[in-house]
Amino acid sequence: MPVKSSLCALVLLAVLLPVTVWSDDSPAPSATPSSSPSATPEAPTAPAVQTPTSDRHLVDHNVLLTASSICPDSEDGKTLCQLRVRLDLAMKAAPLVSKQAKQQNMTLTAEQLPAIADAILLRQVLSEEHIVKSGTKMVAVTMAGRLSPDKLKSMLNVAQKNAQLIAAAKSQYDRVQAQVAQLKQKALSSEDSVRDTVRARMAEAQEQKKEMLMDMLVASNVIAEGVTQGMSPDDVQALAGAPRSVTSDPSGEFLCFNYGRAWVVFENGAAACLRKRLEYKRNYGSNCHCAGSMQSFIDFAQ
Fold first, then answer.
1. Could you give the residue ranges of the DSSP H alpha helices within the chain?
2. Which residues pair with 125 in a beta bridge?
């Protein structure tokens, strides 16, 4: 069962990547000021305490995205998978680019958004598995993409003064799309290729369900480790991305964002509680609120 066993490893790797793979390389500033040569030597101090796990979300507040694809197991198939995953990551990051552009009073077209996302994303291949589905050899590629809100803001600041930056990003994105189209057309050039491609697409649909579960787990961990009481909806989306679904109570006092296994409940625009599940209460006329059994709640990050 190589796919199932690797999926568990990928989930753990995806959760830890923002810290273990993409943390800043620059050394942390010293906790104690350097003493002058004439100062009296002090007694050795205890080693610095390691940053607690709950602070992992402080690493540049990066947004982690994942995507996967399955293609016929060949050099062209592997390349096609990698490029398709690259485009999928760009589309997932496009709403974040749109939101930041609006905050900077910058107008971008629907075609420019994923192009800029593609240019700013840092991509990492999580796995390349060679599998057999319905008697056909296939390759399953999973990648993660890290988007730094700070770097995105800086890039858009430069782009406002230099339109060629956006044009270059769009040109590169168009080339990737054209390469994908060319590889797809090549895959349809023979009956065997058509058969393998159809089977790969069917297998991919099954893997996408697993990918959704992995995304839900990653988002739930980000919420549990990163959201603090009083955060605004914009703060939460900047940390964890767009919610999978949104609901509210009839009065409009409560707003609920779903991130897989975690719900963020806002009361009058501020994060009031985190929940594993929502519970309907007649006096609220809704399931979006902060009342109910204690077992349904998640503690805020400290």
1. 2-20, 75-103, 112-120, 149-161, 163-187, 191-226, 233-240
2. 143
Angle at 120 between CA 106 and CA 59, to 5 degrees: 105
Q: Which residue in 129, 126, 122 sits closest to 204, CA to CA?
A: 129
82 and 142 Cβ atoms separated by less than 8 Å: no
- Tens of pLDDT along 198-234? 556 656 555 555 555 555 555 567 777 788 899 999 9
Q: What letter does residue 34 receive in the DSSP assignment?
A: P
Q: How far apart are CA 6 and CA 274, in angstroms?
A: 30
| Of 138, 137, 141, the residue nearest 124 (C-alpha) | 141
SS3 297: strand
**What whole-number distance in Å separates Cα of residue 253 and Cα of residue 218?**
28
Sheet with strand 254-259: strands edge to edge: 245-248, 254-259, 262-267, 270-275, 297-298
**Which of 73-77, 82-86, 282-286 bottoms out in mean pLDDT, i.e. has the lowest?**
73-77
Please state, in angstroms and rounded to a whole number, the distance separating the CA atoms of residues 148 and 154: 10
Any bridge partners for residue 124, and if so which?
A: 144
Residue whose tokens read 């975690």? 262
CA pair distance 225, 167, nearest whole angstrom: 38
What's the pTM?
Answer: 0.50
Tokens of 256: 């609920």
Q: In whole angstroms, what is the distance from residue 113 CA to residue 103 CA?
A: 14
Helix, strand, or coil here: 183? helix
